[in-house]
Structures are given as structure tokens and as C-alpha cells.
Design a protein that fits this description.
By secondary structure, the protein is α+β, with helices and mostly antiparallel strands. Helices cover about 40% and strands about 20% of the residues. The protein has helices spanning about 5-10, 30-45, 60-70, 95-105, and strands spanning about 20-25, 50-55, 80, 85-90. A four-stranded mixed sheet has the order 2-1-3-4. Helix 2 (about 30-45) packs across helix 4 (about 95-105). Residues about 1-5 have low confidence and may be disordered.
């Protein structure tokens, strides 16, 4: 997975088709469940997933704007971009098969 940077949040409008972004907060149990499955699904699909740590959303205006712009209420949420827009959003079941299917289709 690509390194987490605030720059990622500022450049999402320039994402290439098929780029996926994972806003998450590492300490949450849901993120801890998803990460190993995402790593396996990513390896199986060859997709690049950019990680954005949203732990400081309340104190970081860039992160807040990012979450607001893409209507991210829950973490982890996978965003798949098409033509600089969110083409698909995934915050469902965190099984390897479902995550892999999302990555393959987006």
C-alpha cells in the first residue's frame, strides 16, 4: 500500500481511473479486521491502494474537508476513482472475497 500522506487527500481529484483510496483510522477494530484482508485482496488483484490516516480529522482541516467532500461517515471506506470522481464506494463486509471483488470491479 502507498505511504499515507495528507498530499493524497489533496490530489484525489487527479486520481487515475481505478485508483483506490482507503481512509481509515488504524486503532479502530474495523480497520484492524480489514487490513489483512485488504493486503491479500490487493496482492491478488495487483491494485494500488492509497492509505489516508483520518485519525486527526477533528484537528486537521484538510482531512475534514476530504471526509466531507466524499461523504465518508465510517472508516474504513474504500473509494474507487474514475475520471477524478468517486466511481464506487465500499464500506460493507470486510471478507477477502468481497474486498477482492470490489478491487477487481473498480
Amino acid at each position: 500500500m502507498a505511504e499515507p500522506t495528507t498530499e493524497t487527500t489533496e490530489k484525489t481529484a487527479q486520481c487515475a481511473d481505478g485508483a483506490c483510496v482507503l481512509p481509515q483510522q488504524a486503532p479502530t477494530p474495523w480497520c484492524q479486521v480489514l487490513m489483512p484482508n485488504l493486503v491479500l485482496a490487493q496482492a491478488a488483484t495487483g491494485k494500488t491502494v492509497y492509505y489516508v490516516d483520518t485519525l486527526n480529522t477533528l484537528s486537521d482541516p484538510v482531512l475534514k474537508a476530504f471526509r466531507d467532500a466524499y461523504e465518508i461517515s465510517f472508516v474504513p471506506t474504500l473509494l474507487a476513482f474514475r475520471a477524478g470522481q468517486v466511481g464506487a464506494k465500499y464500506d460493507g463486509d470486510r471478507s477477502i472475497a468481497d474486498v477482492q471483488l470490489f478491487l477487481q470491479n473498480n
